[in-house]
Amino acid sequence: MGSTRGGGVTWNVYKKSSFVRLSNVSLAYTIPAAIVQKWKIGSLKFYFNVVNAAVFSKWNYFDPEYHGSDNNSNITPTPVTYNFGLNLTL
After folding, report:
1. What does the angle CA 44 – CA 84 – CA 40 come to, to the nearest 5 degrees?
2. Which tens digit of pLDDT belongs to each residue from 56-69?
3. How far apart, in whole angstroms, are the C-alpha atoms of residue 48 and residue 58?
4. CA 50, CA 85: separation in Å to the nearest integer?
5. Nearest to 59 by CA among 42, 39, 77
6. How does pLDDT run across 33-53, given as a tens digit for each residue?
7. Do 79 and 49 contact (CB within 8 A), yes or no?
8. Concatenated DSSP letters of 26-58
9. To which H or E segment does residue 19 belong?
10. How far apart, in whole angstroms, are the C-alpha atoms of residue 64 and residue 70?
11. Phi-psi category of 52—alpha, beta or left, where left has phi over 0 and alpha has psi -120 to 50?
């Protein structure tokens, strides 16, 4: 589909953009009470979280949800965030 804008011709390209996004993954493990009592602590829990873990798409190096300007030459990927830690009660 072509159109004139300011004397030039611009083209809008539409491509099928089906995708699957794995946006939030959380894992946690609580050490059983029988074990932590031997260590003389109340409870111990480990956790791990990933935000924006993955995008599965036919588009290479492109986020299908990106809504940028007409000049897409400076597209940066969506950042992936990792969180990990532990909860300890005495």
Report:
1. 15
2. 887 766 667 765 55
3. 29
4. 12
5. 77
6. 999 999 999 999 999 999 988
7. no
8. EEEEEPPHHHHHHTT-SEEEEEEEEEEEEEEES
9. strand 19-30
10. 15
11. left
